[in-house]
Amino acid sequence: QVQLVESGGGLVQPGGSLRLSCSASGFTFDGYVMSWYRQAPGKERELVAYITGSGRRTKYGDSVKGRFAISRDDAENTGALQMNDLKVEDTGVYYCHAGGLWGQGTQVTVSS
Q1: How far apart are the C-alpha atoms of 49 and 67, rounded to whole Å?
Q2: How many angstroms separate the CA atoms of 69 and 66, rounded?
Q3: Fewer Cβ within 10 Å of end Cβ, the chain: N or C?
Q4: Res 5: pLDDT
Q5: What is d(CA 62, CA 73) in angstroms, rounded to the nearest whole number?
Q6: How much is the pLDDT for 1?
Q7: For residue range 78-96, what is the model confidence (pLDDT) as tens digits?
């Protein structure tokens, strides 16, 4: 089955960290841009970060610059989003996107 599966979400206090993972099955990540999006309650889905197929270029949303880091491991067919210094406004469902596919999302809740 061709799919993307996210994991690593959870509940964390402000200032904490989480590492999200995106695992591809049924197709190869290699060469595709991989992106992370998030959607907060009542808001539209927004781009958090992307990494090019070569892995040489990355881009981040203004609200996460300096706190989040996107990476990929094509040999393992996985991607990751390291999230540090999390803020309440980072709360939402985080989605992985690559090769025209969306994952099912993983919930991130930042709350004290």
Answers
A1: 11
A2: 8
A3: N
A4: 95
A5: 25
A6: 87
A7: 999 999 999 999 999 999 9
Degrees (nearest 5) of the Cα angle 34, 38, 44?
120
pLDDT at 28: 87
> pLDDT digits over 24-61, tens only?
999 888 889 999 999 998 999 999 999 999 999 999 99
| Straight-line distance from the first to the last Cα atom of the chain, in angstroms, rounded to the nearest whole number | 39
Strand 3-7 with 34-39, pairing: unpaired
Tell which residue, 43, 34, 24, has the closest CA to residue 81.
Answer: 34
Sort strands 78-83 and 92-98 into parallel, antiparallel or unpaired.
unpaired
